[in-house]
Amino acid sequence: MSTEPSFALQALIARLEQHLAIVSQSRGAGEASIDAAFGALADAFEDYEDALYDQYSELLPFTIPSDDE
Questions:
Q1: CA 16 to chain centre
Q2: Sign of torsion, CA 59 62 68 69?
Q3: What distance in Å separates the CA atoms of residue 8 and residue 24, rounded to the nearest whole number?
Q4: pLDDT in tens, 24-69
Q5: Which CA distances in Å does 48 have to 39, 43, 51, 65, 68?
Q6: Apex CA 59: angle with CA 57 and CA 60, to 5°?
Q7: CB atoms closer than 10 angstroms to residue 17
Q8: CA-CA distance, 21 to 11, in Å (whole number)?
Q9: Residue ranges per domain, the chain?
Q10: Alpha helices of 1-69 — where are they, by DSSP H?
Q11: Fewer Cβ atoms within 10 Å of its own Cβ: the N or the C terminal residue of the chain?
Q12: Dihedral Cα 33, 38, 42, 45, nearest 10 deg
């Protein structure tokens, strides 16, 4: 069962807000909480893009960098 794009979008927005809150309160890029927030944000982005593609056959003009990049 695919996710409704509007629900996936709301989850993405929530993860963006969470990422901002964690980054703005952090003491450095090496904190585990920042890595966790990045991972959650990346997952929400991919879920949203998948929902868009499933529903409308559309993709977003962004990519999530991999560890290789």
A1: 7
A2: positive
A3: 24
A4: 997 766 789 998 999 999 999 999 999 999 999 999 999 888 776 5
A5: 14, 9, 5, 16, 23
A6: 155
A7: 11
A8: 15
A9: 5-56
A10: 5-24, 32-56
A11: N
A12: 100
Among all chains, which residue has been given the structure tokens 């629900």?
A: 7
How many other β-carbons are positioned within 10 Å of the β-carbon of residue 37? 20
**What's the token pair of residue 15?**
């993860």
Alpha carbon 7 to its chain centroid, in Å, reads 13
- How far, CA to CA in Å, does 44 sit from each of 27, 33, 58? 25, 16, 16
Give the residue carrying structure tokens 């809150």: 21
pTM of the model: 0.85
Which DSSP symbol is given to 68?
T
